[in-house]
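In this supplementary section we document a worked example of the pipeline. Step one takes a protein sequence of length 478 as its only input; no multiple sequence alignment statistics are reported here. Step two produces a three-dimensional model, which step three serialises into structure tokens for compact storage. The input and output of this example are shown verbatim.
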Amino acid sequence: MPASAASGPSSLRPRLLALAAVTSVEFIENGMVMFSASQIMAGLQFSAADFAFAYTLYGMAAIFMLYKHQWMVERLGYERFVMLSLAVFGAGSLLCASASGLSLFAAGRLLQGLGGATFFTAGRLAINEMPAESRFAGLLVFIASLLGGSALAPLLSASLMALGGWRAIFAFGLPQVLIVAWLARGQLARTVTPPELRSEEHWGWLLWLCLGVFCLQYAIQSLSLAGSPLTRVLVTALVSIAMLSVFAWRQWRKDRPLINYRGLFQLRYLFGLAMYFFGYFLIGVAGLMLPILLHGVLGLSLLATALVSSCGLAGTVAMALTHVALARRWPWHRCYMLGGLALYATGCLLLAMMELPRGWVELLPATLAIYLAIPWFLGPVAFGTFSGLEAKVFSHGYQVKNIVRQLGLSSSIALTTLLLHRLEHSPASSGLLQTLAGVFVDQAAGTPMLQASQQVFGLTLLAILPVGLVVMLQRVFR
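The serialised model returned by step three reads:
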């Protein structure tokens, strides 16, 4: 327990500030990278596959560290673990800022994934270290900081690129980690777990896990690459699933596993994980596609694009806090989830069917619908997923949830990047994808980039429909 664990208001404020600072790191960084994806690709002369590969390495490293999270905390304590993670994240930021090609940039993203993966989990679990009467305040700060970091990211990204190009968004990581380290010093738990109670696992098995995750991400990417042999993709996917299943089976049999799957094997929790994956997949689509549409298709300046994006994400913060207030009195999870999916689907439909817009104002209703929908869907998922877990497996449950979050985001960014590139540059090879999306899109109108963007939103809408049906019929989240 940190030295400042007293429950008085004067001692609570620095802990809440540290909580906000630690939680926001990854969301600011991810938001800036998604917002500036086109500029990064142009600056480094990356293909869509190159950018997706670098994002896959980030996701693989993050998942590796999320699995190792509890192991590290048991031996280092939260404060030293967070400080070490900040140092690794800063080193990755430096590599990305100085990169001139794929190798150095990918190595930097890998280090950012290793360092950045811990912050979200550390922030959430720090709430459990607070006095019981302060935990709701901690939860509000946690929600506001992660969504507020996402809302700040586009405006911060545009401002930094105006000062120093795309490299500035990664150079910002150095002062960022120094400020966060200063705010968090002395505010996180320092206790370590006795050796006889620590989880156990050989590093070789974690490398096995990394390889399985990488193969799975590679298979997902390859589905959108023109010319990828379907047999090779399916074999890669099956091999990766087999590797991950072997790792999970080994963990299941251990007395002190890294992840206590036996304690997490509950229908409510498993259903919540599936909804988490889809929710973060939708976040990835919105975070990548809306800036491309506003800047790349409409030709808005980066600053104007950032203002629209940040205002929409600020609405996300307000909607999330509204949901928290309403759900405490009326916990109608299924209704909120269906409302969120309907709102997101409406935004996708408006964007998929639009003609070439004359200004950003015409896109505002659809953009706001998508941004406001996300907390309305994910809020009930967050409330419902963990309600049945015992305290002894809560941290394990949150680790797995963040692994699923990272899989959803990295899969979404990789798949959407490659899908957009394929639909724009190789429409003849898109076949079934174009046929499905063509339900909404006028193929004779607009630029290739506009048509490809419309098709991506149309396909996203089609993906929402079966999930909405599942949410409507399920009886787990009422």
